[in-house]
Amino acid sequence: MKAKIAEKKTTMSRTIRADYLARVEGEGAMYIRLKGDEVREVKLKIFEPPRFFEGFLRGRSYLEAPDMTARICGICPVAYQMSSVHAMEQIAGVTVDGPIRDLRRLLYCGEWIESHALHIFMLHLPDFLGYESAIHMAPDFKAEVEMALTLKKYGNELMALVGGREIHPINVRVGGFYKAPARDEVRGFRDKLIWGMEASRKAVALVAGLEFPDFEQDYEFVAMRHPDEYPLTEGRLVSSRGLDIDLSEFENEFEEQQVEHSNALHCVHRERGNYFVGPLARYALNYDRLSPAARELAVKGGLDPVVRNPFKSIIVRAVEMFWAYEEALRIVDSYEPPEKPFVETPPRRGTGFGCSEAPRGICWHRYSIDDDGLIIDAKIVPPTSQNQRTIESDLREYVKGRTSLSDDKLQWQCEQAVRNYDPCISCATHFLKLTVDRG
Amino acid sequence: MPLRTTKPKLAVWKFSSCDGCQLSLLDCEDELLAVAGAIEIANFPEASRAVVRGPYNVSLVEGSITTPEEAERIHKIRRNSRIVVAIGACATSGGLQALRNFQDVDELSRLVYAHPEYIESLNNSTPIGDHIFVDHELRGCPVDKAHLVEVLSAFLNGRKPNLPNHAVCVECKRAGVVCVMAAHGTPCLGPVTQAGCDALCPRYNRGCFGCFGPRENPNTAHLATWYLDQCGQTPEEVIRLFRGINANADPFRRESLRHES
Fold first, then answer.
1. Res A2 pLDDT > 50
2. Which of A6, A17, A18, A14 is nearest to A35 (CA)?
3. Would the CB atoms of A74 and B105 count as touching at under 8 Å?
4. Closest approach of B49 to chain A, Cα-based (Å)
5. Are residues A31 and A178 in the same domain?
6. Which residue ranges of chain B lie beneath pLDDT 70?
7. In this structure, are B57 and B137 located in the same domain?
8. Of A189-198, A313-322, A371-380, A397-406, minimum mean pLDDT range
């Protein structure tokens, strides 16, 4: 009898599925089909409907790109705004520096703080602690949830301070800003940032104490790299396998492929296939560019200079949140408003490239504009479309050693494996759905 | 008044959108735990794995209808909800993705996808109210989070939401913001756009671009003439101005079409 069950187990097919992935941004599903212990099929399905942004940007003014591309994503609009304005400024032959550049970094720090606090505490942490949501967690972890909400709130306030509002900021324009915030408004933010640095330290200590599955993969990490800063909006594209290219060479190395089960294009390296963007990649490739205090915090959090366990991305995010608060403080303390909030960027025919580190990874843009400044062609490669294939590969490897788990447990852990990437599905369709099929 | 024995159920649904409006609910950091204490968050996938079956007292619907599946799904939500509130520009006018309504979708699909045959998409992006009866429309791109709390509070207490329906122009006057159009000749949709942002763009020295959609009875034709004659805009620029975040809202759509040659 026992032998029979064992035999049945090896041939039995089953499906693990989540038809509507929760705690991710946008609409996706997961589908995994097992035959015995063998993983037959893994799909991360993106059913979020396409919205054709690249199509309808054609014929619009180059000045409209930051307002329009922001609408690709409600969670990381600043990433789209920054990538697009840098591309347009490259075409205009303009470099933005000084206090305007600092304000852009301050705005982006706000987005990192808001997005990381949201993901660490509200989207990812409930998985580790076995709760359905942060709201379900609140009765047992009241102080932690309240701290999380305040961490997140200050990120939002920073975005509103520089950008006018937290979602779809209105103050960003090609060349800079419509209006620079007053000195006292910015400097007045200091105490909140100091509180945020302390709270981020507590966050690192909290998440470093979680239990992590034994799971490491040999990823090709891809991130931006700047000569002397932890990367946000400027730099070259580098990888853990020796890639070191200018933004304009992206399409020589990477290509977008369309698969039937996803409305989001899969972006892969032309020769080496799937790769990894986001906090783990940024951290591994720019460890030496973190501030000494952030590096010290990473060590306290038990992190090596390279982290290959995607579940530990929650610790890396907390370290990055600390870094963002610290960087924001540096900017706030030295802020003097610019004489003029923007640099003139008259229209000029050409092609430009922009890339920035969205909280979930690089967001690459290319635009061509005509003599009147109208967009002739646009291409946008969001972070989640680049991670899609790596998420599928993680699921395949993760399920392999864990087929003895019950369907419910396996499903939840697979969902958690997807959430490691903080996938942003609205972004990727321009772009997610989980199903495990043991059939 | 009878005592409520169970908490009212709130559901949040997503259609074609950027997620920003439902994020506004999570952005109510100061109110979130109180809201979660007063109501049962029965379906909100962005925040929780837990799903409680309907019917729901209030459904918040984000996004526009752009696929055949969405056009079906919205009816199930209506049948399962006492109150349906459409939130944001996508749900109330079709959103920025309604720019497809002025173009050939097959061509757009070919531009973005190598295999357009895998993509199932309707020709038009349409608001929720084109498909089902909607109890209330909350405007904005994104919605204002204070408005969101007001709407929830109103419906859960059986009263009408107290929200502004005058123009952005009035918000400027009240706040003493210098008119960007009169002072700088910057084209501004403020005179024809519904209030709700507290004149955000003019406060930042830029023209309103219509996030909250058309106000009641907007005189778009007169404003367009002003753009052409006083602001030195070309008809193409006037078209782009009306054809933005709320391109498919009736008055804005008609005005942009009027300037096509």
1. no
2. A14
3. no
4. 5
5. no
6. 1-5, 114, 118-119
7. yes
8. A397-406
Nearest CB to B20; choose among A67, A118, A168: A168
pLDDT at position A439: 45
A270 interfaces chain B, CB cutoff of 8 Å? no
pLDDT confidence band for A10 (50 / 70 / 90): low
Number of domains in chain A: 2
A426 and A325 in one domain? Answer: no
| Structural domain for B103, as ranges | 9-156
Q: Is the pLDDT of residue A437 over 50?
A: no
H/E stretch holding A33: strand A28-35
Examine the domain organization and report whether B44 and B140 are in the same domain.
yes
B234 and B205 fall within a common domain: yes
Pick from A343, A376, A392: which residue ends a domain? A343
As for how many domains chain B has, the answer is: 2
Q: Which domain holds residue A107?
A: 95-214+320-343
State residue A266's pLDDT score.
87
Quick one: A125 and A191 in the same domain?
Answer: yes
The residue that leads in pLDDT, B107 or A389, is A389
Interface of A with B in 312-371 (CB under 8 A): none
Instruction: Check whether residue B97 and residue B181 sit in a common domain.
Output: no
Inform me whether the pLDDT recorded for A264 exceeds 80: no
The tokens describing A223, both together, are 């991130």
Predicted confidence (pLDDT) per residue in B91-122, tens digit: 999 999 999 999 877 777 777 776 777 667 88
User: For residues B225 and B238, what is the distance between their CA atoms, to the nearest angstrom?
Assistant: 9
Domain boundary, last residue among B129, B156, B183: B156
Report the CATH number at residue A182: 1.10.645.10
Enter the ipTM: 0.94
Q: Is residue B50, in this structure, part of any structural domain at all?
A: yes
Taking residue A244's Cβ as centre, other Cβ atoms within 10 Å add up to 10
**Do B146 and B205 have their domain in common?**
no
Token pair for residue A15? Answer: 């499906």
A149 and A16, same structural domain? no
A414 is in an annotated binding site: no
How distant, in Å, are the alpha carbons of A166, A425, B36, B151 from that of B86? 21, 21, 20, 11
User: Which of B33, B95, B125 minimises the CB distance to A138?
Assistant: B33
Pairing of strands B81-87, B136-138: parallel
pLDDT of res. A435: 38
DSSP class of residue A49 equals P
Q: According to the annotation, is A75 in a ligand binding site?
A: no
Q: The sheet that has B81-87: what strands, in order across it? A: B40-43, B9-14, B56-62, B81-87, B136-138
Residue of A135, A146, A370 to mutate when probing chain B, most B C-beta within 10 A: A135
Arithmetic mean of pLDDT, A181-189: 97
